[in-house]
Amino acid sequence: MTAPVGARSSSPGDALPELVAAAAAGNRTAWDMLVERFAPLVTSVTRRFGLTQYDADDVRQNVWLHLVEHLADLREPRALPGWIVTTTRREALRVLSARRRVDVLDPQTDTRLDINTTDEPDANLLRAERRQAVHAGLAELQAPQRDLLLLTFADTDISYRQISQRLGIPTGSIGPTRARCLHKLKTTAPLQALAS
Fold it and tell me: What dotted CATH number matches 16-101?
């Protein structure tokens, strides 16, 4: 008689092939058990890279996404811990490499966005007023709406696929959702006050 998925055995590695096979076949309980079992391993690898909490979350999400995509291709289930370590390292290095190329700014707190090189006081004042209204309007939006707008407008090198992975929304809904978020931003009190 075969033991049920997740049943305790004499060694933690004994049930791993069955757990992997069940998860690959679409068993949600088996998948949850795999994530629970190996989440500490992913976390320990990300800590070694000194990632921010946001970047570490991004790495974790991508590791599980890769595992979903490749679980059925895994020839030796007992090699899963090594696969997870290698994939986590690659994702962490990818994030660190991207950080070196992109200077990430928070438009609500970073004063570098307020620097102007022109000597036109009226134009500078108008730009600063618009920027302040946009910052205040963004602050009124819910975090997912604000994140989507910041990703699509502030980071021009990011693809819709990356946005989909980062925010957990379908690629096809990014454009329509962004349009709704922009409309919502335009109806915030700071932008309405600016328009009047």
Answer: 1.10.1740.10
